[in-house]
Inverse folding.
């Protein structure tokens, strides 16, 4: 098993101390988009942690999502509104409330290529 860095909190600690979470498709959180996200948080003096969750739809499709986790609900709402993300409740949305459970979606799968000011890089669009 890989040792965890002491500077990165465990998933259970993130869910406990940063419970207000916003989900964005992982493909949107790369390259220049990551810089945009980090700049937004820096400009608003908002500290956050991030972690992953795999969303699984009834038709068997799945996609990785990056959760941006905030201690303050207002910061999470501001982030969610700006980036058109989706609020994620780790206790309700994770399968059986498990720390590493998947996100069972009930809606219909659709690939998201553009969301708010973010756009999937061309190399990841295929």
């Amino acid at each position: 098993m890989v040792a965890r860095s002491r500077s990165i909190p465990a998933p259970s600690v993130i869910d406990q101390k940063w419970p207000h979470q916003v989900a964005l498709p992982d493909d949107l959180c790369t390259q220049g988009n990551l810089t945009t996200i980090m700049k937004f948080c820096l400009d608003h003096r908002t500290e956050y942690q991030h972690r992953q969750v795999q969303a699984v739809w009834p038709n068997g499709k799945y996609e990785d999502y990056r959760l941006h986790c905030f201690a303050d609900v207002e910061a999470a709402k501001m982030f969610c509104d700006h980036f058109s993300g989706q609020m994620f409740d780790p206790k309700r949305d994770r399968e059986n409330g498990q720390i590493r459970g998947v996100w069972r979606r009930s809606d219909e799968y659709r690939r998201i290529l553009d969301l708010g000011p973010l756009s999937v890089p061309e190399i990841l669009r295929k």
